Automatic annotation (TrEMBL):
Sorted UniProt keywords: Cell membrane, G-protein coupled receptor, Membrane, Receptor, Transducer, Transmembrane, Transmembrane helix
GO CC, one annotated term: plasma membrane
Similarity comment: Belongs to the G-protein coupled receptor 1 family. Mas subfamily.
One GO molecular-function entry: G protein-coupled receptor activity
Membrane topology according to the record: Multi-pass membrane protein
UniProt-annotated location(s): Cell membrane
Highest taxon of the lineage: Eukaryota
Chief site of localization: membrane
Descriptive protein name: MAS related GPR family member G
TM regions (residue ranges): 12-34, 46-71, 77-98, 119-140, 160-183, 195-215, 227-248
InterPro entries: GPCR_Rhodpsn, MRGPCRFAMILY, MRGPCRG
Length: 286
């Protein structure tokens, strides 16, 4: 039985490592092309920051997994730092999905009245708020090599759970509302990012929520189901690694191969144009 368990954990470890490395490459390509070769529109700014959050999460997951395997020990600090990247991606996905949903539900109020740098300001605020939202409950509960303060731990951790579940509900709910609105009520052409938000919400529900559940019930799950953490980490890596594939799938056209900047430009479809270093597409070709 011990040999079977060791084989299973080793298999999960190597699969997680492979998925994480593949996701690092894919998100790195998105960061490179979207950050340097494509002029960003309001929604592609969210995509850029989502790719950065996923890259951070996958990089920490891969690096700490290798360190843990080499040293043969696990430090709670590894999980906390990794979870910061995951939480940032969850917050950014919720903001991205909600804003795209509102832009389709209320186009008259949205178009022409949105401040130019709203996306950048929102992403900056989310990046600034995420570390305290993760580190405060971790410190209060003694996960950062400090003493445990029971009362503060309960309060901070309950607030953290409510915050994470609210973000997940916003992301999944906005994608569902957008799908129903586009399918049943809207008379406008289907937005290109509709498929990206819908699949991202579905992936969050299937692959991201187990990681949130592990954060919420970590001591209990470690005691009752030791296998839960490696499986939740694997699913979270799948969630972070699959998003670039969604962009490439949405932007790809059958026929001859096209440069990745062109594919990303078509997938985003929010009026962004390629910068001086890349190609240029007319908006009608998107």
């Amino acid at each position: 039985m011990f040999g079977l368990w060791s084989t299973f954990t080793s298999m999960v470890f190597y699969v997680t490592l492979a998925v994480g490395l593949g996701g690092l490459v894919a998100n790195g390509l998105v960061l490179w092309h979207l950050g340097l070769h494509i002029k960003k529109g309001p929604f592609s700014v969210y995509v850029l920051h989502l790719a950065a959050a996923d890259f951070l999460f996958l990089g920490c997951q891969v690096a700490f997994s290798v360190v843990r395997a080499a040293l043969g020990s696990e430090d709670t600090l590894y999980f906390i730092v990794t979870f910061v990247g995951f939480a940032a991606g969850l917050w950014l996905l919720a903001a991205f999905s909600l804003e795209l949903c509102l832009s389709e539900l209320f186009p008259a109020c949205y178009e022409g009245r949105r401040p130019r740098h709203t996306s950048g300001v929102v992403c900056g605020l989310l990046w600034a708020l995420t570390p305290p939202a993760v580190l405060l409950p971790a410190h209060a509960c003694g996960l950062l090599r400090g003493g445990t303060r029971l009362g503060a731990c309960v309060r901070y951790h309950a607030a953290s759970i409510a915050w994470l579940l609210s973000l997940a509900c916003v992301a999944c709910g906005a994608s569902l509302v957008l799908a129903l609105w586009v399918a049943c009520c809207s008379q406008r052409p289907r937005p290109r990012l509709h498929g990206v938000v819908l699949v991202s919400g579905l992936l969050l529900f299937l692959c991201g929520l187990p990681y949130v559940l592990y954060w919420s019930l970590r001591p209990l799950l470690n005691f009752l189901l030791p296998v839960f953490h490696p499986l939740a980490a694997l699913l979270a890596c799948v969630h972070a690694s699959t998003r670039p594939l969604i962009y490439f799938s949405v932007g790809r056209r059958p026929g001859r191969r096209q440069p990745l900047p062109v594919v990303l430009q078509r997938a985003l479809g929010d009026g962004a144009q390629l910068g001086a270093g890349g190609l240029s597409l007319p908006l009608g070709a998107i």
